[in-house]
Fold this protein.
Amino acid sequence: MSEARVPAVDLRPWLGGGPDDRARIARTVDEALRRAGFLLVTGHGVDPALRARIRAAAREFFLLPAGVKRAYEARVGGRGWLGPGAEANGYAEGTETPPDLKESLTFATHEPFDDPVVNAEWYAPNVWPAEVPALRPLCEEYLARMAELENRLLELLGHALGLDADFFTRHMDHPTYGFNINWYPGRDVTGPPEPGQFRIGPHTDFGTVTILDRQAGKGGLQVYTDDGGWQDAPFGPDAFTVNIGDLMARWTGDRWRSGRHRVLPPPADAPAEELMSLVYFGECTPGTLVESVPAPVGRVAYEPVDSHVYLRAKLDSIAVN
C-alpha cells in the first residue's frame, strides 16, 4: 500500500514545531483519513521495550493450559480472557465469517463512574491473571501512555478539521477505553483455517481512534480502500498504526472514513507464524451525544447518537455465543 494512502506522521514537529509544521501535519492527517482512515504515527515517545515486555508476559498467559485460562473467561466487551471462537468481527458489517482465529486478554477503564447505572453497564474491576503477576504493572504503565497519546491525537484531529483543540477531548474526561492483547497463534494451535476464516474478520472499529502496536507477518493486517481494494498495511517497527472508528466517522459527517481492515489467517507457507497485537480502543465518556459536524467540514448529517448505546450494540453484534 502506498505511503500516499497511509502516510507516516512524526508527532514531534506537531508537538514542538512552528505554525507551518503543524499546518502541514494537519493537512497530511486530513488527507489520509479521507482516503483510508489509517495513519502510521512515530515520534510518540512510547518505549518499544515496554511493548516487548507486555508481549512476553502476555505470551506466558496464552501458553497456559485452557483449563487455567478458563478461570478468567469473559464475554465480549468484558474484562478477562476471550478464548478461541468467542468473536467473529465480520458479523459487525454483516459478513458471515467463521469465528476469528485468535485469543485475547481484554481490559478497560480502571476507575468506576459516579452514576450506578453507568457503572452497572460499563465498569467492572480489571481481571489480572495471578499466574503472570508482571502483566498488571506493565499494562497499567502502557495504558497511562495510551491515554496521553490519545489526547494528543484528538487535539491534532480537531485542528485538522479547523475546530477547537478541545472539540473531541472535552468528551474524554472519563472514557470507557478498551485494551485488547490479541494473540494470533500458528496453525499448530488453530489448525487449518476454514473457508473465509481470518485471524480477525473484515470490519471497522466502533469508537473514536484505535492505537495499534502490531507485528509484521504474512498473516498480518490488511487495509481496504475503494481504489486499491485489500492491501497489506504499511509497517514501521517503532510506529503505531492509528485508525478512525465508526463514531469518529459519524462525528466528522463521513469526511473521514472508518478504516476497514482485517487480519489474515495463519499462512500455509509459514504455518508456525505467531503474532501479537496491543490494541487500544479510544472511546468517549458515557452519555456523549455524537452529532455530525455540519458542512462544509462534514459531508453527511447523521442522526445524533448516544456513544454508548452505539458501542454496546456493536460489541453485542460480534459475539459468537
